[in-house]
Amino acid sequence: MSTKKLSSKTIYGKSSWRLELDSWELENGRIFEKPVVRHPGSVVLVPLRETERGPEIIMLKQFRHVLNQVIFELPAGTQDWGEDPLACAKRELREETGYQAENFVHLGDCWPGPGSSDELMAIYLATNLTHNPLPADEDEEIEIAPILFSDLYAQAKSGQIQDAKTIVSVWKTAVYLGKES
User: Fewer Cβ close by (within 10 Å): the C or N end of the chain?
Assistant: First the structure.
């Protein structure tokens, strides 16, 4: 395939993303325009702590304006342009959960919406948690909701959880921990 980008024009820009209109030429000479969200990248965190009942994940119940509802999801956040994903992960963990982690394991990356955005999400398992909060973002209403990993994995498998970043991150964590079945 030899699709060629002809031009790109910023239509709208925010500090955390930009909407651009790209013009492309296909191999057959046909030209088309496609809107795309340019994104600095983001992180997803799987904060794990060991309990007597087994591994527990610090989840969030968070109001999502686009959906007009509260959803059950893993902590996550947007990187600043040029920011190291691990530095973002450390900050977001403290802002959203009130915990910091001694250890971070990069479980991989994923594109959440490659048909409309170039956002790349870095997924981190965070362990050895201690309480050390940072002020939360002003536009977020978050409730901490710990859950046993086995229950979270079952919810992801059954379809109870619909948040893609959470499903992918839970699966990657299960593979890393050797608990997929």
Answer: N
